[in-house]
Amino acid sequence: MHRSFQLAIDLAEGQWGLMTRAQAKAAGIPDATFARYVGRGVLERIAHGVYRLRGAGEPDHLQLRAAWLQLDPARPAWERLDDPEVAVVSHTSAASLHGVGDLRPDIHEFTMPRRRQTRRKDVRMHRGTVPDSERILLKGLPTTRAARMIADLLADHIEPEAVARVTVQVLEGIYDYPRVVAEKIAPFASSFGLPEEDGAALLEYLLDLAGGGLDRRTILEMARR
C-alpha cells in the first residue's frame, strides 16, 4: 500500500471517514497525489476542503461534522477535543445530536469563546464559554449538555412551545436531571412573568406548555431539591 494512501486511511479512520485538505497536506500527502485520489473517486468532496474516503460508511450528521472540521481544518479531530477553545456543537445542532425536538437541522450551530466568522450561510457561530461541566462528547463531537442546550435555546428566543417539547424529551430520555435543567434556565424565569431566578417555576411552565405523560410532581420535586 502506498504510504500516502495509508496516511489518508489513518486520518479518515479517526474522523468518521472524513479528512480535510489541510490535514492531508500537514500529514505529508502531496497535492498531486491528493488531486489524483479525488479524480479517481477515492476521495469524495463533502464540503469545501472536506472529503470522505470512499468505502467508509457515511456517518450520521455528515454536514454538521464537515462544518465542524472546517472550523479548524489543519488539526485532526482528536487533537481538538481537550482544547478549552474548541468549537462546541450547540443550540439547535445540539438538539439534533441529542435527538430531541424538531428544530431546524440544516443550520449548523457552534459556540466558542473567541469570535469566529465563516462564509457558510448554513453555519451560525455563537460567542461564549462552555465549561467542561456543561459539555459532553456526543457521537464523537464536543456538544453542550442537554440542560445548557435548553438554556441556549431560551436565550436565542426559540418559540417556547418548541423549547417545551425539547425539555420534555430531555427529561423523558434522562439526558439531564431536573435540578440541573432548573438551575440552567433560572435566569429566564422573569422573562415569562415568573419569580426571578425561579428555574423550577419555569420548568413547570414548560412542562404545562408541552403537556404529555411525564410525572410532573416527581420531576418538580427533584427540580427543587
Outline the structure in words.
The protein is of the alpha+beta class. The chain folds into 2 domains: 3-60, Arc Repressor Mutant, subunit A (Orthogonal Bundle), CATH 1.10.10; 81-223, no CATH class. It is built from 11 helices and 8 strands. It has helices at residues 3-13, 21-26, 31-39, 62-70, 77-80, 91-98, 146-155, 160-172, 178-185, 199-210, 216-223, and strands spanning 18-20, 43-47, 50-53, 88-89, 108-112, 123-127, 135-138, 141-144. The strands form 3 sheets. Strands 1-3-2 form a 3-stranded antiparallel sheet, with helices on both faces. A hairpin with a 2-residue loop joins strand 7 (135-138) and strand 8. The longest helix has 13 residues, at 160-172. The chain is elongated, with a radius of gyration of 20 Å. The chain starts with a helix and ends with a helix. The mean pLDDT is 93.
Which key phrases capture this entry?
single chain; 225 residues; alpha+beta; Arc Repressor Mutant, subunit A; three-stranded antiparallel sheet; three-stranded mixed sheet; 11 helices; 8 strands; elongated
Structure classification: alpha+beta
Number of strands: 8
Overall 3D shape: elongated
Low-confidence stretches: none
**Which strand-content bin applies to the residues?**
5-15%
Count the domains: 2
Task: Tell me roughly what share of residues is in helical segments.
Answer: 40-55%
Mean of pLDDT: 93
Oligomer: single chain
Strand order of the largest sheet: 1-3-2
Main pleated sheet: 3 strands, antiparallel
> What is the helix/strand order?
HEHHEEHHEHEEEEHHHHH
Whole-number radius of gyration? 20 Å
Number of helical stretches of at least 4 residues: 11
- How far the N terminus sits from the C terminus, by CA atoms, comes to 60 Å
